[in-house]
Amino acid sequence: MGRWGIVALAAAAAVVTACSPSAADDATGDETTTSTTRTPRITDDSGRPPVTFDPCYDIPDDVMNAAGYDAAKKEVADYPMGTHTFLGCTYRKDDLVPGVRRGYSLSILSGNVTLDEELAKKGAVATETTINGRRALLEMDPASNGTCTYVLQSNFGIMSLIRTYNKDHPGPVPETEWCFGMDGLVSSIEPLLDI
User: Fold this and answer.
1) Which among 167, 13, 185 has a CA at the least distance from the CA of 97?
2) What gap in Å lies between CA 113 and CA 20, rounded to an integer?
3) Distance separating alpha carbons of residues 171 and 74, to the nearest angstrom
4) What percentage of the chain has pLDDT greater than the value 70?
């Protein structure tokens, strides 16, 4: 997770509010089906492109429910930073395996920084890859044990999917488990980015 993600996640504790499907419907009406025509919730004065993909509104609940995340309990947040903007959404997947894991936490952030900026910040822990042919990064930072981050390039900047493995045992999470199965979720969300 780059500096942008760290700042955004640190801000999450202060600004996250619950977002139910009815609240999302009330806030955007018919606009939820046409992401490219919706006015972005938050803009900044940086001259960067507006963030046109809003994870809480533009990822259908059935996609997240199919992946085991409870979309009815998703939380939406705004991160206006002045020099850039992030729109965020957090999910939980409670699939307890006693003595192994309690589940996963997932934050999805869309921001108007570039993939090259993210790579410059996280190059030491990032590997360049592609998702469905789209340029992306896979980040596995040893300092954040159990966290796997995919960062996808978009027409407005990047989308980051940051999943944390919530262990149910003492000691570290085996590195082989950090990103296990996450590529399928990322691949299912990727086609929605530029619709």
Assistant:
1) 167
2) 28
3) 29
4) 75
